[in-house]
């Protein structure tokens, strides 16, 4: 997850409320628009050239999915919003990429903001905001930039796989959200691998000095993933319980399925969280164990040689009357004594399990 | 608990929802089907050769328990599902072994998923998914593979022990769930033994270097056991409170009994959890105590011999005018002084309780 | 608290539900039965020889308290159960000593299980299961073995102290539960003393090496006491709020009083819990302080004598041209320098507050 | 807070419930009774000689405040209770100084127990139980001993300051409770000062060896203050929400004001709590930092002089053929080498920021 | 945040309740009054000379915002209060700067207290109390002193930017609160930067000795920010849910928007909180890592030179019969042995990754 970007709120101080202002980074790729217009029999897929082309779909009987990539194109989004009668505050939320996941029920449409999570090539979590507007016969989706997790949905629309072509717009919305939630699983799976790799590293002693930084980063990562995913639970729970006329009775079962998956993701996140919180303790014991080892080496060396050095010091004294010095085998006797002390101390350390 | 397998979600990215796809490992043993068909007077036990043989029991008056081992045989399970009118999403849940424990009430049947826990020969917790479908006069059970905790139930059915032959299908379901919950007790008992053994090891100082890894593994194990067991509490609570027509009034008391047991298991799990969380602290103090001991040895040795070595160094100097060197008993006096210092320091350390 | 015994569930795997099987230890003392049968005017106390003698009290107008010691006498308890129309599941709970405290309302009686706590002679907490059955005009109580906390109640019955002889059976039940709850206070008081003694020990530095084991044991002890006491709060709360016809309006106030006491006990338990959880930290700092002291001694000794030893080493060299060696007072000058260094270092350590 | 006294429950084992028994310490000062009897126009203040003098106020139209100091005078309190129709269980609670703060609504009066907290001269928190009985036109207050926080209330009564003389008894009760809650603020302020002083001490390194004991004592203190104050929140909340006929509509606003203050006190307590809980960690790092410093001194000294001592040792050897010994400037060259090594090592330590 | 000032309650002991007493510091700047009186067409901005000038706006049809800086001018505030019929307890709360954020609904106005947070030039958080009174056609705002976060609102009023001139007083109140909440974002952003800078410092090892003090200060800061912001959530939630006639239906959406922002701020605060709580652990590991490094240097030096010093000591002995001393190359052989030992030990430490 890009460090600086994500948890800055980028709230524009002093702005008039309801003004549609893009809060992401300025260097965004070009606008890209695509439309899927389908009935049970037929499915038209189209790359749109400008926002006006999307207006025609509003009043057709067919179901339409219009996907807009590029939240920085605020004028286009405002035009679309006017045509589809979207409230200005909703448009403001769509382009404010720091928006918390939420659901808003309006008279003729349902507005849902959520976070799409995936790992990029550098194994950083990318959190991209996706907004949906569900109308009677259309779904509008807004993404920060191109590249998403909806390819399987496109495929199913094109080739009439599964139920999606036989159902209403609410089922299309379900498949889109389901695709996002499916990716949550792979994100936490990779996160889980990271944690386990890290654990293994710590246990094997191959730890760098910035291990505690890595732990702190893992903590931050899981807290952010958590913050992206947990509010969605409540949102889906509300869809499931409500009797909004845009969500049909037979689709509810599918939303309940998403809800189940979210509970599962949440539980895994909380388990990982507890694991990460324990890592620091583990790291601490590893450090202490290492220090113990260092200390043992020092202690063993010092304890063995300090008395021996004392003994040789004794016979280095220059007293005129030191009887031992005249002994013929004095030198060898001293060696014998020293070897005996050496063996005794080594045995002592063996028994203490220090060697 | 197999490390990698259990908490991977294995959610199949991009699949059409409602498609019945087995998510476990591929190397599963063969399909095995067994049926118990019984009335108060009679009980027929039968090993079925194919799934079609099980269809006959649907419309009999007798109570039938059909047990299917082998969730990888999805076509067979789909056939059974069609015959018994099971919703495709339910079938999907049955073969998705990462399914969280849950209960779903359908018009003509009740669907329950839960986790069977037992220790295998290597003392690893095995978590196997078991699904139940309770109909008017039948119970279908689905297990990942052969080998389960239901032998006592089979025995009671065969020999008409207890109440089970006199009661309806809901009581049969009760005895099956009860058998699973009973095994939770033995699982946490073994877990408890592991924790206490580990504590004892830590206290006695016989700890390996990977103690903190073992603690982390224990933490993970208890978190997973917890996750398998806690949702069941809610499920049984719902059975107990609801007025589902498939659960008769006089059976409710028995479900309440299971509920009681689950509360008890949960409390034990939470106590073990707190114990495990404390283990790391204990381990830390053990390490520190050991280091203290090492340091003491070093300090005692160094403190005693460093001054003595200094003294012998003094008389190793080569000054021309060192009056002591000429003293007749100089050498012996120095020895006397050194012995005095030695005794003094030993006494000092004794008083400090370091020796 | 006997280590092994209490938190083993001893759930009998594969047993028919509703079978009345004693789960405690086998070496139980003999059955002992006592009965108090009283009216406002009169109180008969009787040691019963067999269970059948207790049957006569069921239909008298007087209030009867029958106390059964010895849960291993299951046949006797089943006989009693049949005579008083007790449900088999209730009987199962009575003799299952791992039963969690609970209340069950049946048509003609109220069933309550709770834990009696007291310290035995070895200062171990004894947790004994006590079950009560409150009928219209009788209270049956079941205990694991002889010896209990009800002597004051017996005394009041015998000598018509207080209100007990003037009230109904529900008041008798109240006095019995009150006696148990009163003992909770003394248990946590002793537990509190243990914690404070332990704190004092740690602070005074007189700690054994198994201090962290003692802390872990204290943790376990308080967790178990908590588990025995906390569910009772809910039970009494339910009695207080319900309109069970067996509990009269004017007795409710007394149950509310018990509830108050239980809240008070619970608060104390939670305070002790926080205290115990802090003990490990305290112990850790004590260890670290000790190591600091050890290190200081080593450092002071080494820092003072290492430079001095170097100096004497210098003048032990055998160079032919070492002018100092010829100085008349060279030896004494070196001594002077060494004394100066010694004093300087001692002063330095004094200023650092290490000495 | 007196260590032993406060959290002992002093529950009298085996006592008849409802017996009015004083549970505080026996060496209590004499009984002291005072009465304020006032109307809008007039206020009579009177020191009562015996409890019977207080009976006259029951049926006057004026508002009366009778304050009883000395809970050990149980007979007097029982007499008063009989005259004012107080329930025996209420009287029991009044004289049981381990009573948890609570409110009891009776038909003709409201009974409130709470804790008055203040610091005595030795800066120990004194927790004194105060009970109030609010009747239609009177307030009875019971305190453990003389000395309280009500002087400002007395002053306002005497000189008709503020609203108190124009309002009913419920407003008088409000001013009394308000005075107590006001003192909570000063108690936690002093507690806050203690914590900050302690922090400053730890940071400045001027810590005694019993720092961890002081931290433990602070923890205990805040836990007890918390326990005295938190239940009151609920009590006042209940007064504010209820429609007890003794509390008039226009007084409710004032009770809500107390409630606000209690929330504020509680928040401060919880902040202090978190601060104290962090102190131990801080202390630990301080210890570790100190040890680091000790170790550095040792390491620097040893690292510099050990190689030098080795060098001088080399030239202290007595080999017959050691060419360096004959060099004219050998001695001075060795000195040069040693000085170079010394400077090199000092530079190394400087670069490592150890010096 | 000024250390001493903020969390002292400054509750005036013994004061008559309802007395309007300023609780801030005495050295406050002069009173400053400003008024904005506007309709859709027109906006009059005026610096008021005295409080009486503000009275005229009460009965105009236009919307009026009167902003009072200087809570120490209690007489002026009381005059204003009387003119606008504000309850004395409300006035007391306005000038009590330790007031907790709250909302009070009165018959003709709504009273809201909240905290304005911003960083001053020294990067200390300033927490200033702001109170609002919303009447039918006016908003009164009370600030401790000049300088606030409302300049963007003033600008919009002057130049009729956005919706504010077309809407009622409730929308004006919304824009004012919104401006305050917007500043919460920048406050927590700066706090976030502080935490990250601190983390970076700790990781890079450039930590001062008072690092643990800084961590404690960060903890305190975040706890206070939390306490200022969290109650506001509930306040706005109540506005949003209630049907107060002063808040129009079409403004509710805007308040819900604030609520959303507050949830977002709260989540960020809680993430930062967890981060700060981890900092101490990180700091601890950094200290331990440093000590490890120190110990390694010592151990390496000592382990290498202690045996060498022993060897040279051996040949410094003065025995008459030491054959090695006569060897021609004895001296060089000893050097060879010592170099070999040196190389062996260096290799050993390399393999252990200590070098």
UniProtKB/TrEMBL annotation, chains A, B, C, D, E:
Principal place of residence: membrane
UniProt KW keywords: Cell membrane, Ion transport, Magnesium, Membrane, Transmembrane, Transmembrane helix, Transport
Residues forming coiled coils: none
One MF annotation (Gene Ontology) recorded for this entry: magnesium ion binding
Signal peptide span: none
Source organism, top-level taxon: Bacteria
Transmembrane segments: 297-317, 329-349
Subcellular location: Cell membrane; Membrane
Pfam families assigned: CorA (PF01544)
The protein's name: Magnesium transport protein CorA
Species for this entry: Jejuia pallidilutea
């Amino acid at each position: 997850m890009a460090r600086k970007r994500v948890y800055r709120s980028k709230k524009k101080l002093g702005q008039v409320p309801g003004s549609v202002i893009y809060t992401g980074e300025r260097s965004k790729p070009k606008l890209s628009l695509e439309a899927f217009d389908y009935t049970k029999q037929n499915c038209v897929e189209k790359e749109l050239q400008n926002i006006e082309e999307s207006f025609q779909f509003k009043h057709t009987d067919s179901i339409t999915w219009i996907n807009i990539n590029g939240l920085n194109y605020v004028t286009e989004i405002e035009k679309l919003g006017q045509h589809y009668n979207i409230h200005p505050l909703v448009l403001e939320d769509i382009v404010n990429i720091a928006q918390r996941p939420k659901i808003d029920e309006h008279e003729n449409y349902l507005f849902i903001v959520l976070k799409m999570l995936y790992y990029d090539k550098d194994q950083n979590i990318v959190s991209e905001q996706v907004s949906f507007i569900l109308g009677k016969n259309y779904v509008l989706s807004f993404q920060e930039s191109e590249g998403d997790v909806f390819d399987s949905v496109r495929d199913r629309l094109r080739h009439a796989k599964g139920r999606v072509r036989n159902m209403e717009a609410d089922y299309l919305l379900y498949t889109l959200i389901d695709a996002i939630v499916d990716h949550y699983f792979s994100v936490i799976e990779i996160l889980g691998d990271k944690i386990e790799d890290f654990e293994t590293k710590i246990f094997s002693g191959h730890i760098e000095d910035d291990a505690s930084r890595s732990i702190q980063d893992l903590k931050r990562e899981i807290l952010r993933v958590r913050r992206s995913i947990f509010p969605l639970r409540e949102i889906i729970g509300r869809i499931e319980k409500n009797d909004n006329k845009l969500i049909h009775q037979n689709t509810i079962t599918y939303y309940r399925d998403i809800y189940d998956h979210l509970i599962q993701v949440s539980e895994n996140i909380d388990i990982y969280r507890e694991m990460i919180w324990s890592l620091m303790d583990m790291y601490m014991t590893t450090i202490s164990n290492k220090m113990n080892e260092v200390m043992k080496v020092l202690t063993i060396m010092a304890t063995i040689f300090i008395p021996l050095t004392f003994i040789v010091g004794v016979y280095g004294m220059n007293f005129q009357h030191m009887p031992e010095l005249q002994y013929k085998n004095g030198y060898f006797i001293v060696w014998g004594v020293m070897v005996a002390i050496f063996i005794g101390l080594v045995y002592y350390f063996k028994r203490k399990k220090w060697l």
